[in-house]
Amino acid sequence: MRKPAILITGANGEMGHGLIxxxxxxxxxxxxxxxxxxxxxxxxxxxxxxxxxxxxxQSLIEQLNGEYEFDAIYHLAALLSTRAEFSPRAAHDVxxxxxxxxxxxxVEQGRSRGVPVKFFFPSSIAVYGFSGLDAKNKAGAIPxxxxxxxxxxxxxxxxxxxxxxxxxxxxxxxxxxxxNRCFIDFRSIRFPGIISSKTIPSAGTSDYIPEMLHAAAKGxxxxxxxxxxxxxxxxxxxxxxxxxxxxxxxxxxxxxxxVYNIRSFAPSAEVFRQRVLEYFPQADIGYHITEKRQKMxxxxxxxxxxxxxxxxxxxxxxxxLDNGLKDYLVPELKEMYKD
Length: 339
Ligand code: AKB
Hints:
Order of helices and strands: EHEHEHEHHEHEHEEHEEHEHEHEHH
Oligomer: single chain
Number of domains: 2
Low-confidence stretches: none
Radius of gyration: 20 Å
Bound molecules: 2-amino-3-ketobutyric acid
Strand content: 15-25%
């Protein structure tokens, strides 16, 4: 008998931390956690099985297929945008090859179970692309189906995988005997930059905001790598996790799309710096611009339009910039760095 479970890849990453905790608390479900690195000790007790391995290892995927009956797969493993620019081929292998492998696992599972397997795919504002600041500023808050011209490897990978997920859900083997059957229920969110109190991100390009805040809380100086007027959307990690659990529990008939924008607030780097200084007046935050990373952020939208998510699955963030800092980020960071 195969064991019923849910699978989380990239389980030890920033988002995996929050998701494992939330899913453990919400459901009486066995979580299989897969990551390249060992799971944090704090999370180990919350999962049924912890696997250290690579999503590109086909024998590991086959082993999972044989041992478990997954009713949902949360595929979080990815190489983020800055890392992907340094290693584009590795990024393609992991971000595209890895996703294809997990989609195939989901199809196998859906076929054998006779019901579609829910598949969560975190996408990103990196799927959008503007040629320059004028175009970005003119466009303002953009909806899902416009400006999808990514100029980063990560954005290309994410956009293609969004399309792959849509294809696997609606057209997989469309010329075959099973052409009317749906094996996966693909649901994706395009995340803005995410700010967590628990972990400092690395290898992303939206990292200047969380890095600035963590440095201030630790009492360390920080040089922001983008200009002060740089603006893209952000949200807190608890809202990101809340969004994942909300879209995954929404009735399928309520979802009019496979991919949704969500966002909470969109401060410029300087607006955020000023807010950080209100809480940490001694913070030493300056600017040392890295032109190449600046161009990447300049190609991402000023803000996104999340009205479809609000309509279809009643998405509404708990945190704005004010209460996100006051009620969540600042108290938790002060506690974490108090010694
Ligand atoms: C990154 O910077 O790579 C990510 C993203 C914007 O998706 N945080």
